[in-house]
Structures are given as C-alpha cells and as structure tokens.
C-alpha cells in the first residue's frame, strides 16, 4: 500500500535548469554593464568553469569571475551581479505547471509527502517557500542536514526512516536516472521519472515515466487498486 | 580649498535605523506566523540581545533566535525570516530626501565624493547600488576592506590617502559624534553632523550641524568663498 511520496526538488518541482541559466546570464550581463571588461560568451565560459571546479554551493563564484577577468577584487561589480541574480530569482521562481494541483490531490489521498534533495538546507527551504509549496510537505530532508547526499543509499534510507515507512510503501519522483531513480530503486521504492530539465534525455528506466506531475495521480490510483 | 567630501552611509545617506527596525520586526512576525511559538515583544528582546552579543554582521541571528525559543534548529522558520527581511530591504531601501539632488549638485561643483563606512564590503556596496547612488562616489571604503573601522584615526587617514587630499581639503559628513565627527576632526577634516537616526540627540559638536543634506551646498559655497 502506497503511503508516501518523496520528491526531488530541482528540475522535478520547478524548472531549476532554466532559472539558473537565466539568472547567471543576466547577472553576468549586469556585471559587464558595470565594468567587467569581457564578452558575455567568454565570461560565461569562465563562470561555468568556476562552478564546475568549486561546486554550485561555493558562494564566491562572482568574486572569482571578477578576479579572473580584471586581476583584482571589485566589490561594486560583484555586488551588482549578486543583486541581479537575486532579482531574477524572486521574479522567476515558480513551480512547474500542475505541481500545486497535484500536491493538493495527493494530500486528499492521505499520502505523506516529502522532499529529499541535495543542497544547503536554508537555500532549499528558501526555494520551497518562494515556490509557495513548503506547507504541503511533512518532511524536507537535505544532504547538508544528513551529511551525505545523492546517490548514497543511506540518504534514501534516511528518507524512509523519517517517513517511518518501508521502501515498497513509498514512491520516489525525480528527474535524474543516476542520482534519483537508481538509488531509490535500490532501497526498494517505486520510482517515477519526470522528463524535465537538462537530464531528460539521459538513458535509463524507472518503474514509471511521466511528462507532467499530474500523471502521478493515476499511478497512485492504479497501484492502490492493484493492492499496492 | 575644499576638494572632497567623505560620507558615512548608514543613517547619513538613508534611514538605516528605521529600515533595520522594520525589517527585523516584520521578519520576526513572519517567523511567529510560521510557528515560532513566542510573543512578538519577547522575540524582539531575544533577537536584540543576540545582535548586541554577536554584532550586526554575525549572519546567524535568526538561527540563534529559533534555537533559543524552540530549543532546536528549524530551517523553515529561519528561511521564512530571511525571505521577509530581504523583501523588506528591497521594498524600503531608499535615500533620505534631497540626497540624490545634493550629490548631483556637489558633482557639478567638481568635488570628489566618497563613502567611508563600517561594515562588510559587499553588503555596503549592495546598499549603495540598491539606493541608486553608487555611481556618484569616486571612492567607497569599508572597515572590512581596510581591516580597521571607526573610530580609529587610521581609517579616516586612509580615506584621505585614497582621495590624495589633506584633512583641511575634505569635509566629513556623518550622524554620530563619537564614531564620525570626533575622529574626522582629529585628522583635520571639516566636520558636518547630520541630525538623523537614533543618535541625533547625542551630545557633542561638529563644525556644522544640518538637518537635511541639501544644507551641505551652502556650507561648501561659504567655505570656498572664505578661501577654504
């Protein structure tokens, strides 16, 4: 019997790839406008390398970009980039179509709902609150909080423990085969892959594949009818 | 001959006391609404004590408040407070009346303009950019950047060095007797106290005392007519 659903956050409940790409690009454009003497393409290439090398939670990407281009620290240009990034975040952060409608329907079906996501705890909560969907979730679990992230099986097992449920009682919904679907399957969860974001063409198979979150309702109904 | 003007930022160019007080209060209200089980008065008392003990640049005030009230870490409540604080910042940050008009007029008088302020470099730049006044300043100097803040005379001397000017060629404008006016006077600057913010009733005397930044124009004109 399905009793709970755990969701990935980025690119599953909202369009993270698109948001991040626009926010970074607009931030860099504003920095060029403020005096960062470089072409947009070159700046994006340098920034992407910094993000790849230092990780997305590093926190000083724009500092390093400015230092790399100008050879010095320029707080005005850095602050300009930060403000633009933040303004784009406030403007663009919204759930994928049908997300809220689906969460309401799942609540009506008496399911426990949770988010199991990589990332910094406060940053992920900030996204959930700005998306207006945080109140739907009984559990929000981050890799920062647990100390280990995806695709570690311990992280997924910890999700089950927080729910107080067994693997076969829980559906995991995520966009990535390697970091969401495979580990969730290994701990015994029923897996639903949503074809969203930059990994939607990645090879691999989940128990179910959907294009829109609303399709989850039919999957839960069928599983329950089948005794699951 | 007056050749430059250095300004304090908080409570001199914008209403920092009012902004911070509203932002903190609204943030706490939103945290209570999100489940922080405490009265507004009690929460504000705890928060003010945390800010006093840890300093205003500590960065984890809301974390400590939540831990103090609930005895545990609650990222949803903390993130709620951070979002509200930020929203209030975006909404309320604006210069005092006549600030921009005065800066334009001073520029027309061929004066070098600068900001000499305590605080974190990026945060102070973020304020200047959000206030829409950063392009007026030839120099922006922060205590974080210099390594020492007000009322250290070295900090004020460093301001003169950045301008390449002598004390008698520079006016310092600030709201605080103890941290702005006295040290600026000691390094030989001409001092202008602006009666703004929570220190406006503090005892002490500057060379000039004004209520509105626009009065600075007459002071500069008179000083120049007098050969200064």
TrEMBL record, chains A, B:
Cofactor(s), names only, from the UniProt record: Mg(2+)
GO biological process: small molecule metabolic process
One protein family per Pfam: HAD_2
GO molecular function: metal ion binding; phosphatase activity
SUPFAM superfamilies in the cross-refs: HAD-like (SSF56784)
Keywords: Hydrolase, Magnesium, Metal-binding
InterPro entries in alphabetical order: HAD-like_hydrolase (IPR051400), HAD-like_sf (IPR036412), HAD-SF_hydro_IA (IPR006439), HAD-SF_hydro_IA_CTE7 (IPR011950), HAD_2 (IPR041492), HAD_sf (IPR023214)
Domain of life: Archaea
Record function comment: Catalyzes the dephosphorylation of D,L-glyceraldehyde 3-phosphate in vitro.
NCBIfam families cross-referenced by the UniProt entry: CTE7, HAD-SF-IA-v1, HAD-SF-IA-v3
Family the UniProt entry places it in: Belongs to the HAD-like hydrolase superfamily.
Protein name as annotated: Glyceraldehyde 3-phosphate phosphatase
Organism encoding this protein: Methanocaldococcus infernus (strain DSM 11812 / JCM 15783 / ME)
Phylogenetic classification of the source organism: Archaea, Methanobacteriati, Methanobacteriota, Methanomada group, Methanococci
């Amino acid at each position: 019997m399905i009793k709970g659903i755990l969701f990935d956050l980025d690119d599953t409940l909202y369009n993270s790839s698109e948001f991040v790409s626009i926010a970074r690009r607009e931030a860099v454009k504003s920095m060029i406008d403020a005096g960062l003497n470089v072409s947009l393409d070159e700046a994006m290439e340098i920034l992407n390398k910094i993000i790849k090398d230092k990780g997305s939670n590093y926190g000083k990407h724009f500092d390093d970009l400015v230092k790399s281009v100008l050879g010095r620290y320029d707080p005005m240009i850095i602050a300009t980039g930060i403000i633009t990034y933040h303004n784009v975040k406030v403007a663009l952060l919204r759930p994928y179509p049908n997300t809220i409608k689906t969460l309401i329907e799942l609540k009506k079906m008496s399911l426990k709902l949770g988010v199991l996501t990589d990332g910094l705890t406060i940053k992920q909560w900030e996204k959930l609150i700005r998306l207006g969907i945080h109140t739907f979730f009984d559990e929000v679990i981050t890799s920062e909080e647990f100390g280990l992230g995806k695709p570690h099986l311990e992280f997924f097992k910890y999700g089950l423990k927080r729910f107080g449920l067994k693997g076969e009682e829980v559906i995991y919904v995520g966009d990535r085969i390697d970091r969401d679907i495979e580990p969730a399957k290994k701990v015994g969860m029923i897996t639903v892959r949503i074809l969203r974001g930059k990994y939607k063409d990645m090879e691999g198979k989940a128990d179910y594949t959907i294009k829109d979150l609303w399709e989850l309702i039919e999957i839960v109904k069928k599983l329950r009818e089948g005794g699951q």
